[in-house]
Amino acid sequence: GLEKATFTGRLNVLTQGDAGKGNAVLNIGPGSLSMDNSAMPLHLSGEAKQNDLILYARLPAMLTGSLYDPQLTFEPGALLRSRGRIIDSLDIDEIRWPLAGVKLTQKGVDGRLQAILRAHENEMGDFELHLDGQANDFLPDNGLWQWRYWGKGNFTPMNARWDVRGTGEWRDNVIELTDLSTGFDKLQYGTMLVSKPRLVLDHPVRWSRDPDNPTFSGALALNAGQTSFSGGSGLP
Fold this sequence. Notes:
This protein is mostly beta strands and 236 residues long. The protein has strands at residues 7-17, 20-31, 38-50, 53-65, 70-74, 79-85, 90-98, 103-105, 108-121, 125-139, 142-155, 160-171, 174-184, 186-189, 192-195, 198-208, 215-223, 227-229, 234-235. The relative contact order is 0.08. This is Dicarboxylate transport domain-containing protein. InterPro entries: YdbH.
């Protein structure tokens, strides 16, 4: 019967996009499927191309649990990567989603969720952003996903470097930024030089996505150092 059967297989998928052809391979098993406790190794690898974006996948995983309530766990080395262009002027040098240890069930996503983005725009500059968080039975508007984020970049038009950091969470239908700090080392434009402008949270930004009573609240504060001009004048 099903309990004693061993399953194995291979599925090859060819894709076609503006960036060219892609190929993905799903290896299944050898393993077992059970009404009580399955044990089925899976491995998805390859690439897909959509418009000017290319997505690369290397996703070893294990399917366990009953067929009524299965659980998919990504194993060490599981990684999604992408590069290309999403809009005319923004080039994605690389975005990475490490997925090792992440679990998928009928309740949602459970485990550590991370992302690393490196991108550039020819006239505005380049930047790097990191997201690292923990999900607990998370689906959009259900469950909990807490995260922290940080990053840095260059703002070419004003000859400045910037950084950002903060924390937040998505709990059921409420998205909240609990901490935010972002700013520049300076802003220089023509004869004007602004020293260390920085935007911070005065009160958490809170967006309730209740379909019957949506709300949005929060407060930001801008702090800046001295503003000076090349002629010698300045603002405090």
